[in-house]
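Researcher: I'd like a candidate sequence for this fold, 508 residues long. If you have to choose between options at a position, lean toward the conservative one.
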């Protein structure tokens, strides 16, 4: 097996399969200096200002002269004088292809009265404001299978009672974008199929009033959606007692749900990557993309997100847009993000993170080109804003930050009933109420952190399987997890702390 991976004949760099030492050879090129695993080595001489290609795409420009065999990284590669803002051919709709023949995989899910299908059967406790978070958690803790196993002993079909709290809900413009996003996010969770019933708890005097939220969201209280405030309930202790009693009343109804055979077309999978490395765009991300193509062929939906982490690669998505309108909507979100970061004295290249760089990624362009591989090759059907309800089947895009908990929160609010999360550094993440599968980009991570990882994609790097074979394995794992097989993060109890709505606007 070669010491390196070359992704395209036109590339200026190759990727080290393992750590290389000075004097090692890559074909006819002698390695100069230490090259960590997953990092880039120059194939040819590059002058200052020359574009550097990986995936046959520009990932940056040489900031100093680079000789063949040298390590290519932050010391000699950057975005150039224009910060990566160079012309890209959006070629709207150029790569649209006929829809695949529909296939008919099944999984065991919970059919809801409105026709949607759940992968889990939870009761949710939502807080309207940070001030009601402690009460919400106290109610959920009463039903914890770890703390009080007896509380749910008679309700085998209930996956649990989870409190999803957050740090905002007041000190904000009641008519502003921040409130709109928070209301939309909470509504998405309150109506999520994986929640069979929901309590929403407020303080009483907050900006995010529960009655206003219900009205703005078109929601009505009933047996499976109830709201109340601490101030109207007599304080903390009485509110906790009231909430526990209300959950107890809901449990028999929720427990009546049973898994039945359902079409894979009801699966909606949020795509995430965190703690990426130089292998992410070679192994786990394209393998997940292959699984996405299978999911789409079975009528399901996949949501790509993390707009700052597709920056510079958006032209690969606009080519697949089913209409110019869809493609231009994506470009508009890119422009919004350029303005947003500039307004806060930042830039789009604040990514990659220190961990990404340690793993071999140098610029946001390089990271993005690998990140979009999660989306496979299917047509781009629609573009949504944060936490909007996803009403299209197939491959779609949702505008979110790159920060994984915030991004996944938006996807779940949009309807995602499963998350697939690639990682090269070993992210610790889980999601409630939608289970999260984690995919390792390299075998070293799998060996080191297997109790956190569901699938090893490092065997692609090791030459033991193909991207397509791994894609099929991932798709089958999706079906198994959706049918009730617990993910590693569920076994560890992740999910409640990872509810992080996107906080926009002034804090007042």
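Model: Candidate sequence:
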């Amino acid at each position: 097996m070669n010491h390196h991976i070359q992704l395209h004949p036109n590339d200026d760099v190759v990727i080290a399969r393992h750590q290389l030492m000075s004097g090692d050879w890559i074909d006819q090129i002698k390695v100069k200096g230490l090259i960590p695993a997953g990092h880039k080595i120059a194939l040819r001489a590059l002058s200052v200002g020359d574009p550097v290609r990986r995936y046959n795409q520009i990932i940056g420009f040489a900031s100093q002269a680079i000789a063949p065999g040298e390590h290519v990284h932050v010391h000699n590669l950057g975005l150039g004088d224009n910060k990566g803002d160079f012309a890209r051919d959006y070629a709207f709709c150029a790569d649209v292809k006929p829809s695949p023949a529909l296939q008919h995989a099944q999984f065991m899910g919970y059919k809801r009265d409105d026709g949607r299908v759940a992968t889990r059967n939870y009761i949710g406790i939502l807080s309207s404001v940070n001030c009601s978070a402690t009460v919400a958690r106290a109610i959920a803790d009463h039903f914890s299978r770890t703390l009080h196993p007896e509380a749910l002993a008679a309700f085998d079909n209930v996956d649990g009672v989870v409190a999803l709290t957050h740090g905002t809900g007041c000190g904000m413009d009641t008519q502003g974008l921040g409130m709109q996003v928070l209301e939309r996010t909470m509504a998405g969770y309150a109506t999520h199929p994986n929640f069979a019933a929901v309590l929403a708890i407020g303080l009483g005097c907050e900006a995010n009033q529960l009655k206003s939220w219900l009205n703005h969201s078109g929601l009505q209280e009933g047996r499976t959606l109830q709201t109340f405030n601490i101030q109207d309930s007599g304080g903390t202790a009485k509110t906790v007692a009231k909430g526990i009693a209300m959950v107890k009343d809901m449990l028999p109804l929720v427990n009546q749900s049973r898994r039945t055979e359902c079409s894979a077309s009801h699966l909606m999978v949020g795509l995430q990557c965190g703690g990426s490395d130089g292998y992410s765009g070679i192994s786990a991300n394209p393998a997940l993309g292959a699984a996405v193509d299978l999911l789409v062929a079975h009528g399901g939906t996949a949501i790509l997100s993390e707009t700052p982490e597709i920056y510079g690669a958006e032209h690969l998505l606009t080519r697949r847009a089913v209409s110019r309108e869809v493609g231009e909507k994506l470009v508009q979100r890119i422009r919004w993000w350029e303005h947003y970061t500039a307004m806060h004295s930042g830039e789009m290249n604040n990514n990659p993170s220190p961990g990404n760089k340690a793993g071999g990624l140098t610029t946001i362009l390089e990271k993005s080109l690998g990140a979009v591989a999660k989306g496979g090759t299917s047509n781009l059907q629609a573009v949504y804003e944060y936490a909007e309800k996803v009403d299209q089947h197939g491959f779609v895009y949702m505008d979110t930050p790159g920060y994984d908990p915030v991004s996944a929160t938006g996807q779940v609010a949009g309807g995602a009933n499963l998350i697939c999360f690639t990682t090269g550094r070993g992210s610790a993440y889980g999601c409630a109420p939608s289970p999260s599968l984690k995919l390792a980009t390299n075998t070293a991570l799998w060996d080191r952190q297997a109790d956190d990882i569901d699938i090893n994609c490092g065997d692609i790097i090791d030459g033991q399987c193909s991207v397509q074979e791994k894609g099929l394995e991932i798709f089958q794992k999706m079906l198994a997890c959706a049918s009730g097989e617990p993910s590693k993060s569920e076994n560890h109890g992740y999910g409640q702390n990872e509810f992080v709505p996107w906080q926009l606007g002034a804090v007042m």
